[in-house]
Specification:
3 strands, three-stranded antiparallel sheet, elongated, alpha+beta
């Protein structure tokens, strides 16, 4: 019987249980790093980070692309490219309704990323 951890998939990141131990507590397995890296890479762009913030903080839990595009001095196709990158990284889900697309944050994935980056704050002397 192998002591190797099961290979993590993107679907596992939506689970209620943490996928992994925080970085500050234990080394992350290579397989887990490979699954999580695209999400961090997607958030590494300032426009995508702002889009993610707008989507995650939307009052009704979702936001129309028609409300996202005017917030930037970028073309519609450029915004669509950034939103596709967030979708492909597993950070958001999208639904087409007529001519508009609505985006929702995958809160389970965001929770997993936050857990991975959690650092215990020690009291100062």
């Amino acid at each position: 019987m192998s002591k190797q951890p099961a290979v993590l998939t993107l679907a596992d990141l939506n689970a209620a249980e943490p996928c992994c131990t925080p970085l500050a507590e234990r080394r992350i397995p290579a397989e887990t790093a490979a699954v999580l890296a695209p999400a961090f890479k997607a958030l590494g762009d300032p426009v995508r980070l702002q889009l993610m913030s707008m989507i995650a903080s939307a009052p009704d839990g979702e936001i129309c692309v028609c409300d996202l595009t005017p917030a930037f001095e970028l073309s519609g196709p450029t915004i669509s490219h950034h939103l596709r990158t967030l979708r492909e990284a597993g950070l958001v889900d999208a639904d087409r309704r007529g001519t508009w697309v609505y985006y929702r944050a995958r809160t389970g994935v965001l929770r997993q990323l936050a857990t991975l980056l959690a650092v215990e704050v020690l009291p100062t002397s």
